[in-house]
Amino acid sequence: MWPICHNLRRRLESTEAIMRPQEMGSVAKQVQQLDQVVIRFAGDSGDGMQLTGDRFTQETASFGNDLSTLPNFPAEIRAPAGTLPGVSSFQLHFADHDILTPGDTPHVLVAMNPAALRANVADLEAGATIIVDTHDFTGRNLTRAGYAENPLEDGSLDRFHVHAFDLTGLTVASVKQFGLSRKDAARAKNMFSLGMLSWLYGRPVDSTRSFLEQRFANAPDIRDANLAAFNAGWNFGETTEGFAVSYQIKPAPMRSGRYRNITGNLALSYGLVAASVRSGLPLFLGAYPITPASDILHELSKHKRFGVVTFQAEDEIAGIGAALGASYGGSLGVTTTSGPGISLKSETVGLAVSLELPLVVVDVQRGGPSTGLPTKTEQADLLQAMFGRNGEAPVAIVAPQSPGDCFDAALEAARIAVTYRTPVLLLSDGYLANGSEPWLLPDVETLATIEPNFADKPNHETETGDHSFWPYQRDPQTLARAWAIPGTPGLEHRIGGLEKADGHGNISYEPANHDLMVRTRQAKIDRIADTIPALEVDDPHGDAAMLILGWGSTYGPIGSACRRLRQQGMQVAQAHLRHLNPFPSNLGEVLRAYDTVVVPEMNLGQLSLLVRAKYLVDVVSYNQVRGQPFSASELEDVFTTTLKEMHS
Amino acid sequence: MWPICHNLRRRLESTEAIMRPQEMGSVAKQVQQLDQVVIRFAGDSGDGMQLTGDRFTQETASFGNDLSTLPNFPAEIRAPAGTLPGVSSFQLHFADHDILTPGDTPHVLVAMNPAALRANVADLEAGATIIVDTHDFTGRNLTRAGYAENPLEDGSLDRFHVHAFDLTGLTVASVKQFGLSRKDAARAKNMFSLGMLSWLYGRPVDSTRSFLEQRFANAPDIRDANLAAFNAGWNFGETTEGFAVSYQIKPAPMRSGRYRNITGNLALSYGLVAASVRSGLPLFLGAYPITPASDILHELSKHKRFGVVTFQAEDEIAGIGAALGASYGGSLGVTTTSGPGISLKSETVGLAVSLELPLVVVDVQRGGPSTGLPTKTEQADLLQAMFGRNGEAPVAIVAPQSPGDCFDAALEAARIAVTYRTPVLLLSDGYLANGSEPWLLPDVETLATIEPNFADKPNHETETGDHSFWPYQRDPQTLARAWAIPGTPGLEHRIGGLEKADGHGNISYEPANHDLMVRTRQAKIDRIADTIPALEVDDPHGDAAMLILGWGSTYGPIGSACRRLRQQGMQVAQAHLRHLNPFPSNLGEVLRAYDTVVVPEMNLGQLSLLVRAKYLVDVVSYNQVRGQPFSASELEDVFTTTLKEMHS
Amino acid sequence: MTTDVTLSGLRDMPMSEVETSRKDFTSDQEVRWCPGCGDYIILNAVQGFLPALGLKRENIVFVSGIGCSSRFPYYLDTFGMHSIHGRAPAIATGLATARPDLNVWVVTGDGDALSIGGNHLIHAMRRNVNLTILLFNNRIYGLTKGQYSPTSEPGKITKSTPAGSVDYPFNPISLALGAEASFVARTLDSDRAHLTEVLQAAVTHRGTSLIEIYQNCPIFNDGAFDVLKDKDQAEGRLVRLRHGEKVQVGDREWVHDAHNDNPSQAFEISRLDDATMAHVPIGIFRQVERPTYDDQVREQVAQARAQSGEGELAALLSGRDSWSVA
Amino acid sequence: MTTDVTLSGLRDMPMSEVETSRKDFTSDQEVRWCPGCGDYIILNAVQGFLPALGLKRENIVFVSGIGCSSRFPYYLDTFGMHSIHGRAPAIATGLATARPDLNVWVVTGDGDALSIGGNHLIHAMRRNVNLTILLFNNRIYGLTKGQYSPTSEPGKITKSTPAGSVDYPFNPISLALGAEASFVARTLDSDRAHLTEVLQAAVTHRGTSLIEIYQNCPIFNDGAFDVLKDKDQAEGRLVRLRHGEKVQVGDREWVHDAHNDNPSQAFEISRLDDATMAHVPIGIFRQVERPTYDDQVREQVAQARAQSGEGELAALLSGRDSWSVA
Ligand SMILES: Cc1ncc(C[n+]2csc(CCOP(=O)(O)OP(=O)(O)O)c2C)c(N)n1
Ligand SMILES: Cc1ncc(C[n+]2csc(CCOP(=O)(O)OP(=O)(O)O)c2C)c(N)n1
Ligand code: SF4
Ligand code: SF4
Ligand SMILES: [Mg+2]
Ligand SMILES: [Mg+2]
A400, A608, C170, C190: least buried by Cβ within 10 Å? Predict the structure, then answer.
């Protein structure tokens, strides 16, 4: 029976019976080898599914599997219990090999109530396993979830392997001794489930135990109840006859080094701290809370020991304004937001372009337009990042491709911002922000250093031999302007948003000067291409005719899909852009080297538009704007079809 | 001597001596025929040059010449008297034939002080005429203007025909009888000059006399002094021996009808009023002052008789917010601004896209980025208009091509907004806004009517036979949604910026629905192309190999340049886009029909980018970002060179 | 309380011919706040109050910004717009100015109204647009999951201030009075009778009425106003303001004059709460008549028409300086 | 006036070792206001005042928004930023928080500060960031050529209000007090001695100091404050406020207490001007000590470092749950 439960593109490696020391009267169970599993935990927003997922992920990470996660929460804080909109879920894909996505369809669904079942069951393929808490499968709760009949009884789940337990009841029983209210007792059911699943997949449990001890250090009752529920869940898994086998997924071979599991927002925050350390510029974050970017503000507010200042502003405009003010004073000014906030910041980004000051503007993209789908992912702000300002106001644009990569992308954004005295837009998205993966810790000593190169003396000699400071004198290589911060004696000067004369920077309405300055600002951004690596193409045999070009968080699904094609003997090349503006210098060449270029995007074709305009290459856009990452199998189909059409 | 003064591309038609009745001892003078003249009036900001230009224009318009004007004022309100930054000028091109631009280089410069001379003399070609007020050509004033020597004496103006008079002195003398202070008396010098120039070019003067009478009705001294100065100027022209000839420029043949002279901002304001009248929707303008858009607010605030409400908001966001609120209530909501204001409005434009409500957003473009060059023209906000919002948030974009055309463009913007329930960006610019031309008055009865088609009854029948109102039910043709305004009984409903379900419009986080809605909003904008005319190409012989494609205010210089090429026997086709999004359906076809397509723009190639991306046509961008309109001769050179290169 | 409707905030708004009930004001959308959220009680009170108002349902519009509180319009079966963060007062200003026949409400939160939307709020109040603004003050950002707001107490530990906030909070009443508000009141989510009484006065006030409603957020700022709701302490702490009635605080006693043209006394009363909640005035601080922005705008239109008649398009276009070409 | 600099707004700001003069603070840019503009006199006063302040010139920064008044920084040979409309307080907040060694000024107009920038202004004041804000109030939009502003008198006829404005104006002092400002003052462009005296107090106040300066715009709103400058009338109309000194208005007389923690009295004084300019208080309305935002932010950083030492990047990155792969 179990092999079918994990039936999706998965090798069965071996099935061996392992005898375990008997605990609590458990019987010896079979242990079966799997190469990968996708589990989705689902329950009410109040059920703690995100925490359950996080802990399971942590256990899995420290066990050494490769993994990738996808949390999915409702826009409401806590929609009424038991309703579909209130369902919160967390998906985890882990494997004994290198994987790139949180998985297309779960092999295992853990559903804590009828709504959680109903909201997720459509994503399962036949043969999947469902572990369900039967506690709320009663009249009113079923109706609230939209069930006319009890799905556990009406045969509608026959295609699946259903393990139905009264997890709530079991939990309450297991924590009786702590004298909690029934409600508080029942809240430990997520730990019970976690314990059960941990047993099922042989996860190491120490980290969860110590986590619980720390987290509830101030509430011993709660702490003990959670620990008890967790242990009881483990024991229940081992004991119950409901589970005949448990599973083993071997650690994945990984490059040697120290790892941790990390989400995109966390990695991005750390990247900014690293940029501050490596540049010597204090980090100043000016931000206004907005989903899914707020966690960066929360995270950075903890790192005062690094001299990080976080300013929760009255709005997005003040957030970027303060960051720009801090930049002007010699800080690494950063502002973080999501799409609607970028709209509000546009005028100030334009000012930063004109002032030519460093500024990192982080856009954790979410579903749009307008308020859109705040908790869903999308990559539809690329063209806003490129063009969302009055006048010719070019900025650099950088995007990370995976949660861990947010660290490098943030560091790179800061490098460009400081080196070129320019705003840089860093385009993350909701999927990267909250998703996680194991991350190989970098050697901090070898991280790129960033050179502010503050001006500290006059840089211009007048005809009369006087020395003065010209803030718009430029480095001939980078075209970066001279940057003198307040407090530098003798370098007093004024800058502003009006057009300024080349060199000395005083206001100028001169027609020819304006044309020169417009072109120079553009040229400066173009010059960034000199310091970014050529685009690498992953084309194992070097003979693919089709290239898949992507950017941002689609890296995982595109990569997975490419692997699948290759496994089936098809040739396909993959390239993924870190830099969206300017493009790497060899992009045109790369594009022209392939008969067909497919550009999958979670928008209506924004990168496509840019490359078509620039290189006149008739790329094929593949677009889905569903608030969700691509699934690898969807892309596999698209790429396969495209390949077939090329040959027909 | 005089023929040389008007030497630029100008036919001498005839020279005849006309005897006039002797006035004030004047001598009979020769009258010479010219086919066109370009005059530039220049003086201190306080010298009233804009008024002088306006009046001369008005006289010229009512005389029946074709004309085109270009005011040019400093960013400062009134920079210190006598300085270069304080110079304000007004250029007028008038002719006995159809013309398209205010002219490249003035034939006649009227300079009221040293700074005005210095700031403008470089634009003159040899042989041009300079009429100069010598009054301020004294030590300190010369120095302030940056002259080491007196240019009237050092021979530096030998290439020109200089008429130097103490106009200030003459004025003061002519108004002595009114007992004004010397300062007030001297202020009438602009009217003295106007009188003189009016004589010189045989302008009808009644309208100026009655204008002065009205304008200063409450200040009889000032009124009389101005009238006296004006008359004295006329008489001086006739009397002085400085002028040996006067000029006649015959009326231009024009389509029959009633005309008036009109600036772009005025025509745009009138177009909005007309749209209100023709749609039956009251006009609501929410605006925050900003150069060069403020005059639309000023103008519309005068038309309360049309039920126009103007709301000067606390900022640009409130301006568009209030307009959107009024639209929601069934007004024609309009907001007017310039580039930086568009940046600030982006979030609300996105909301309007999501709500699918009509909204006209006027951007009178100016030099950017940031504060840029507030009083200068540019067309660098096209891509911001297209893409300056988070998420996929398409809007329609419309642009006028000449001052008078702002009327039609505004009406068209309103038609699209109301018909398709969408924000429409109307891209004017500083050149159109303040420039003027004769405008054939439309027959108001035949102006397009605009149908709001408010929903007034339920449009959906539920399974149970109930009737309800679905605000996101669409017209199958236009895809416009049903629009029910508050106050409509039984049609109560809620809309918002979160993603909404197709049809009933309730909040929906459904992945497939989001994809559908994103594509539907895009499709709706695309459908607008069904109701816009095919792009017309002006290709007289139908055999040109080169097409010039433009948009917005470049129509004049492009058109002039094309005429010049054709006059020289070269074939060139011209097409000008009114609709920037969506493009007319035949644009691709048109582009592909030519070997070479040149796209001149006052930006770094924004329309180019859009057509390249969409049609993969390798258009040639020609760009100048000088804060000034193209000159026809510059484009003539570019087009000629491009044609030559094509054949080589 | 009897109101002369012709002078009141409701002038020009059509009355319903049929009797309506709470059900008529309840939309078909499921309410999605957290269990126990104070927003439920306020919704309930408003749904209970609207029928009594007697207006045609279709002439009532609720405009909101973004936040938990701003979901309010979805649950009322009137016209409604859930707009963008902070901008509801601006949107409502346009709507109310364009449509005197509509009864326009704004629903907003402490973040929406006082943080990002602060400027629109103060400008609406100084203009005195005929709006009723319900400011749900839970002293926290609910929807974004618990950051401090401009009304959070100093030192507050939240997600974005792990070491405690260092912002000094606004007193929304003082701010409103400083911004020339003509009607300013405070009430509590839990006191339905008081809430309803204040609503009645606010909606019939012609001009901008601001009602600050202390609202409990059990998830992120639970119990913020508990001392004002606790049976034993509440009456000692609450200072009830009613025009013409005596007020006593400690040993000071005076007759409350909400109609005083000079807002100084109201301001002074707003400072009674020194952030310890020892003395928290509730009720109407100020209620004075002042011409409204929207009335005056419409009056100017009417006057222009009365003086010179409806505009004629053809005459406008041709202006004074046109000429004919044959 | 002697100031304990260590406690003052100037703490942590380096003093100049050499004596400076007005010339040192005059930039090489030609001043481009209209002839007769009040801005000239203010510039003059500030250029005259700065040398006396004794700070290092390079540690002084002027940040402005957009407007005629906002051209101010160009004319001072210090560091300066001419930013965008309304945003100077936000930009200055970032700068002052990041750099305690800088003396940060904001220069703004009535439109810049109270219209588009109203929100940033009130938030800066409630946070009490260490800034000196000069609000040039000419009751008009100068740079955009004469539209009414949020301080224009009702009924004002301007380019955008040909039938008269129907907005009710802000009283900037009342607004500031409602927004928890710790230092609020008013002065006149024409009274250089008074302006200088107020500047001195403002700049040495630790926290946000708002100075409203009545400024004449001879081009678009000439004579707006003439009655306050006219020799015969001025002293009858001006109510001079000095802490600890007697104030007399009509038959009321009191001792001015600018240091009162409760802003109610200051608020009441701000209402003396009922828009007729019969009684216009000038001087310092309020000047109270309250922790500043920026000091507290830096204090939190210092504390975190004192408690747990400087952050170590490698430790941060590896966190608590890392593992090794061989
Ligand atoms: C432009 C923009 N910025 C930020 C947000 C994120 N956001 C939504 S609601 C909110 C604050 C909510 O607080 P409050 O107004 O007090 O309402 P509550 O949820 O507490 O009722 C924020 C910051 C947004 N939606 N849009
Ligand atoms: C975003 C933006 N909106 C509008 C403008 C146009 N603008 C410039 S200054 C100004 C108002 C000036 O008034 P005020 O602040 O009182 O300054 P003053 O010129 O009177 O000194 C306006 C509306 C702008 N530059 N930027
Ligand atoms: S988060 Fe707080 S304010 Fe928001 S719905 Fe939940 S309880 Fe109410
Ligand atoms: S317009 Fe007024 S405020 Fe501006 S510079 Fe001229 S006089 Fe001064
Ligand atoms: Mg709140
Ligand atoms: Mg002003």
Answer: C190
